[in-house]
Description:
Elements: H1 4-18, H2 31-56, H3 83-99, H4 102-141
Helix pairs in contact: 1-3, 1-4, 2-3, 3-4
Amino acid sequence: MIILFPGTVAVYIPYRLLTPVTVSRPDSWSLPQIAAMLFLAIGVAILLKSIWSFARVGRGTLAPFDETNRLIVVGLYRYVRNPMYVGVMTILLAESWFFWSSRLLIYSSVCFVVANILVIGYEENRLRQKHGHEFRRYCENVGRWIPGKPYDHAG
């Protein structure tokens, strides 16, 4: 499940969306493509670091039936509440940029809307029920999508 969900959203579906357009490796990469690869690497690093914290600290998986036991407020979660989604969105935008694909850009936009609906409509409510005041305090100090100052969970 850890690889299946982000892999499907960030790799398989974009590949399928690009396939009709005939995806091929360019003979040479331009500066924008090199920059896109840098952002892709950053997105992958964010995603993997987030998954590691999720499994190691939270002792759970991405699956709703095996959710974390603890509220995760360490690692990248100190700076932004949803680093996994941020990582996936960074990957999708990098792919859109690399292939200069409006089709992938539209898909990325749809994914962001769906992520907002999922996070606001389900995940945050679930975390509020499970972790109460601790989660409310966390939300007051850490942005949903935009990284900010590190969260001091001891204070």
